TrEMBL record:
Keywords: Cell membrane, Membrane, Transmembrane, Transmembrane helix, Transport. It comes from the Bacteria. The chain crosses the membrane at residues 27-51, 72-91, 97-115, 156-178, 198-221. Belongs to the binding-protein-dependent transport system permease family. InterPro entries: AA_ABC_Transporter_Permease, MetI-like, MetI-like_sf. Pfam families: BPD_transp_1. Signal peptide: none annotated. Residues 23-217 form the ABC transmembrane type-1 domain. It is found in: Cell membrane. This is ABC transporter permease. PROSITE patterns: ABC_TM1 (PS50928). SUPFAM superfamilies: MetI-like (SSF161098).
Length: 253
């Protein structure tokens, strides 16, 4: 095996420690920016749904500002966004290059995308469930947590999977401008020095990462769907919103 690798991928063997370091840098960038992007993307996605016209917390001003901000950042190509955020990145991270300097632009590039994915997932929810919850006296916050988020778990997982795979591509793109990681490794050696085996090695690693995250996402979707994330209409509400009242309630027995 070692002889085969030395024959067909000599540059990969020679720079294997650096390849491992670049792979770790990619994971760090994905982990740091991914956690932040998940939190803000979920928050903004829910905010868009509940503040839109007819939402449970309808607010035209908040919806309009948030909607336009998401559209604005989504319209900027990521390479240009990295350059535009250099002053802010230096202010926040202390540097605009390397793994640490890439996290902030990755967050700005990922949050708008994930926000729209979450918004789409929540918008697919049967509006009859919302109306039923409102008729039972549930507060807007109860509807958000017990209906929107609970019932949309498979959709949110699907959106997260798509976003993670997109984030892998963004980390590779960040490497082009000195962000480190597999993208930087492939550009420096595979492209600039024409070491084709390194290019193929990075492609295979990225392909394996995409396949792993996609498979994990599909598994979670199947598990959550079978566990009642999409029950028969109306079957979940009596359980979730059960509020015993009157002389025949369980608390009165």
């Amino acid at each position: 095996m070692a002889e085969w690798l030395q024959q067909f991928a000599p540059n990969v063997v020679e720079k294997f420690p650096e390849l491992i370091e670049s792979f770790w840098q990619t994971l760090v960038m994905m982990g740091g920016s991914g956690v932040i992007s998940f939190f803000f993307g979920l928050l903004f996605g829910v905010a868009l749904i509940v503040t839109r016209p007819g939402g449970v917390l309808q607010n035209g001003l908040v919806y309009g500002l948030l909607d336009k901000a998401v559209n604005f950042f989504r319209s900027i190509p990521f390479i240009i966004l990295i350059a535009a955020l250099i002053p802010l990145t230096r202010l926040v991270s202390g540097t605009a290059i390397g793994t640490r300097g890439a996290i902030l632009p990755l967050v700005f590039g990922t949050v708008p995308f994930f926000t729209r994915q979450v918004e789409s997932a929540l918008a697919e929810l049967d509006h009859g469930l919302i109306e039923a919850a409102q008729s039972m006296g549930s507060s807007p916050w109860e509807i958000i947590f017990r209906v929107y988020l609970r019932e949309s778990i498979p959709g949110i997982v699907r959106a997260t999977t798509i976003t993670v795979i997109s984030l892998i591509g963004l980390t590779a793109m960040a490497g082009v401008v000195g962000g480190g990681g597999l993208g930087d490794f492939a550009i420096r050696y595979g492209h600039q020095r024409n070491q084709v085996d390194i290019t193929f090695a990075t492609v295979i690693i990225i392909l394996a990462m995409v396949s792993l995250f996609q498979g994990l996402g599909n598994l979670i979707i199947r598990r959550t769907s079978h566990s009642g994330a999409h029950p028969v209409k109306g079957s979940l509400l009596p359980f979730v919103f059960h509020r015993p009242v009157g002389p025949f309630s369980s608390s009165a027995k």
